[in-house]
Amino acid sequence: GRDFRVDIGTNGIWSWHGPSGDLESLKEPGLSGEFQIHNAAAVLTMLDTASLLDGIDADLVNRVLPSLSLAGRSQRLTVDGVEWFFDVAHNPAAASALAMTLASCEVKNTTFAIVGLLDDKDVDGVIAPLTDSVDHWIAVLPNSERAMPSGELARQISNLTARACLVVDSVADAIEFARHEALESDRILVTGSFFTVGPILDQLVTESRPEI
Fold first, then answer.
1. Which strands form 5-8's sheet, in the order they lie side by side?
2. d(CA 140, CA 190)
3. E strand segments, 89-146
4. CA distance 51 to 146
């Protein structure tokens, strides 16, 4: 809005207007969430400011950005017809961005959230933004010496959301419960820490990989 600006169309096509020029008809980044467009615009401005924008045009941006992926950040994986959504979101700002992303996605019937946090994190700040997006909560013990006990996390989630929160002590138990309860029209969110998202993502990716 000052040194650069972004114009976003209704179909997600956007334009960047920077210090040295404009880039039009840009496609959305591969990462979910409209805020990712603003992140991309900031990167283009950084390149422009550093005199590194020469040779970068809309065609190049459109070849690179749509294929962008980052493990555990707004990452989707469909397993047995059920959508799993992974985002570490271990602080209030990230949780707010995650909430906006979930709200912008296709509406699912029911959302289950598997959450594990470290004991130095702001539970209220992480959980509160997600309250409207989550129907069922599952508190799990992350794979870390600094993990918040799942029982304590469940207590705080229940107090904050006025909903019951299942307590599980292992990633395997969390996956088993979510799979048993979720239908194909549902969504399973995994969030709260790299130590929660990583092991669950690794297990599901390993299971879905075809045997050779």
1. 5-8, 14-17, 22-26
2. 10
3. 111-115, 136-139
4. 43
Pairing of strands 14-17, 136-139: unpaired
> What Rg value do the Cα atoms of the chain yield, rounded?
19
pTM for the structure as a whole: 0.76
pLDDT higher than 70, residue 100: yes
What is d(CA 167, CA 29) in angstroms, rounded to the nearest whole number?
A: 36
> How many CB atoms lie under 10 A from the CB of residue 39?
12
At 208, the pLDDT band (50, 70, 90 cuts) reads low
Number of Cβ within a 10 Å radius of residue 123: 19
Q: What angle do CA 7, 10, 12 make, to 5 degrees?
A: 70
Phi, psi of 70 (to 5 degrees): -145, 115
- Region at 140 (left for phi over 0; alpha for psi -120 to 50; beta for the rest): beta
- What's residue 23's pLDDT? 95
